[in-house]
Amino acid sequence: MRISTTRSALLAGAVAVTLSATALPAAFAAPSATAVISEVYGGGGNSGATLTRDFIELANAGSTAYGLDGFSVQYLPGAPSAGSLWQVSPLTGSVAPGGRYLVAEAAGAGGTVALPAPDATGNVAMSATSGTVALVSGTTPLTCKTAADCAADTRIVDLVGYGTAVVREGSGPAKGTSATASVARAASLADTDDNAADLSGAAPSPVNAAGETSGGGEDPGDPGNPTEPGTVRIHDIQGTTRVSPLDGKTVTGVPGVVTAVRTSGSRGFWIQDTAPDADPRTGEGVFVYTGSTAPAVKVGDSVLVSGTVDEYYPSSTTQSVTEITAPKVTVVSSGTALPAPVVLDAKAVPEKYVPSAGGGSIDALPLEPSTYALDLYESLEGTRVQIADTRVTGATTTYHEVWVTVEPTQNPTRRGGTLYASYTDQNTGRIKVISLDPAAPVPTANVGDVLAGTTSGVLDYDSYGGYNLQATALGEVTDHHLKREVTRKQKGKELAVATYNVENLDALDDQAKFDTLAEGVAVNLSSPDIVSLEEIQDDNGAVSDGTTGSEATLKRFTDAIVAAGGPRYSWRYVAPQDGKDGGEPGGNIRNVFLFNPGRVDFVDRPGGDATTPVAAVKTRKGVSLSVSPGRIAPASAAWEDSRKPLVGEFRFHGKSVFVVGNHFASKGGDQPLHGRYQEPVRSSETKRVQQAKEVNTFVKSLLAADKSARVVVLGDLNDFAFSPTVDALTDGKVLKPLITTLPKDEQYSYVYEGNSQTLDHILTSPGVRRFDYDVVHINAEFADQASDHDPQIVRVDVNAPEHGHGHGHH
């Protein structure tokens, strides 16, 4: 089994082995006289290699058995970056005195010889040339990234850095590794805590606990040219759960017909058995991974495939794809008729999405394809499928992918999408469609269009949305002529306030981007009085040279708005401290207010800077701000590496209005809806809830000074109306989320993986008594978009009487 985002076994890396917490070892400053890492090989499956898999071998120099239950081996890049993580391979059993213990790691497409039967199997794609391996207590991933920090970690028993690894023992890393060479300890197993002295390059010589060497216990025989089918069928490989019962094992002469070929990216081909079994759980198709080698087969070839079964995990939180790697292929005949495709439609797909494992892995759960949609798709992984006349729910992307639904009545939106209604109401009919023919990519389509006729191919899985149809035959797009919306002009007595995420806008962007965004403000939003912008970068974008101002960016943007027929806007913002506000490195993203000085006044109160918090000041006339523009609690830990909210005091028709522009922390790092952990953990939510509490506290301070204060909180909150984030923001009913005032089928402003949902919001305080609210759909549903967010607008009657009320516009 392997985890990789690049499918490369050439990742530079480091590996560590972990031991149970029952006997904590000394730091590796004390050489081990018992368990050591005796050999490390990262070239398995590489071009020119003999062995098909990477491995780590442990040895016991002691006189008694060394228990490994609860131990693990872990891996880190040879030159670790801030984002590098140790990868963990758990261990069980023990190492006999004088014995060996073999941990198999990732397989590649090269090599011909299998490892002896491993004593443990991991999924780490180790580097052939540079990495670090360590023996550690427990299975918690290590966090050290330097030799000194790792030496101070008392969980580590032994550690081997090789090649040019930063993390190593002693004077330097062990030398001599390559696609055909490991680093190995001398026969004495001497450990002086100096990798360069203790280990040297040698031909790989893996030995398992049974004393078997390469080929023993996993003997592939002669898989070069089998002429008769072996005993294993594809349904035996796929099994009744998500993980193959034959994972890591060699299979010989697996029969099938080639149903599709992929010649770019992750190269390989799919085969399917023409004689299926009667169990709906056991799939009849499988992907044969050829790595960097173009497949030498064509659709309709009847083949016998030998190789190693492997569970490929696109990332650590996704489900896996069952594959045959390092294949040897015999073409028996050509022109074979393909198995009939399985039809995916509303009758076939269950209403329930996925079983629960209480947050744990669903890998080992028996599949229930008639009960859960993801179980059905898993049972069809690698199998021919067909869809017909499907509605587009996610527009064609720059990667030539389009999302459709095979469940047309499932949570439809007014404009043709599929609404993401709650965490427990997943849309089971969403499927991504990709063309396998680079010369005939998926055609351009917008939400609401229809992929008409029949689209067929094989069902695959990836980390970018889960199950997808790799199409060998595409339907045609029926254009439903989706129109970009134009909101009404505000009346003279209405203050119009909008929010718009302009997606990393900076002065180096193309003029076309400025012009399209400007038209959105001037025409589609009908020139609001105030526009709260998210993702305005400093003037040189990602260049990191200390620049923090956005004057050139905003000059170009406001000029473009005038050119599009809008007013001459003024602007206010608080420049961030360099490198402190998160987002694109060097970009210094901030929130900005544009306002039309012909309609509304900005109340400037000096002193607001990157580190000064804004406060509510009670006056005889109500409440004012201590600084304007200002930032909410900029020193709070809630805003670390994140954009701070911008607060401004405005005057309209003699009344004060307080506007709070926000850009909360992103959802990056959350486990995917389609992943192996169910229910998924939303780890990024913790920070957004903290941020929401800070804003809620500030709004409460305004209302404590003046309970009728008009407050508009808006921006990209990166969370849903039904989320704990919005609950924390509205705590005490101090704010009303206006998205919930719209009809259900209009409550969205963003489309992700075929789900129409809301990350952007406008919320108002009780003092905003009469309003008219609108989401203006101009981006998210279209293949051609200036931003991935739709803007929103609220028109407020500041002189509304006590009994006034608001409504969502449609």
Key traits:
810 residues; mainly beta; 7-stranded mixed β-sheet; 44 strands; globular
Describe this protein's structure.
This protein has about 800 residues and is mainly β. Helix content is about 10%, strand content about 30%. The protein contains eight helices and 44 strands. A seven-stranded mixed β-sheet has the order 29-30-28-27-43-42-44, covered by helices on one side. Strands 31, 34, 35, 36, 37, 38 and 41 form a seven-stranded mixed β-sheet that branches. Strands 10-9-4-3-13-14 form a six-stranded mixed β-sheet. Helix 7 (about 685-705) runs parallel beside helix 8. The longest helix is centred in the last third of the chain and has 21 residues, at about 685-705. The radius of gyration is 30 Å and the shape is globular. Residues about 1-15, about 15-25 and about 215-225 have low confidence and may be disordered.
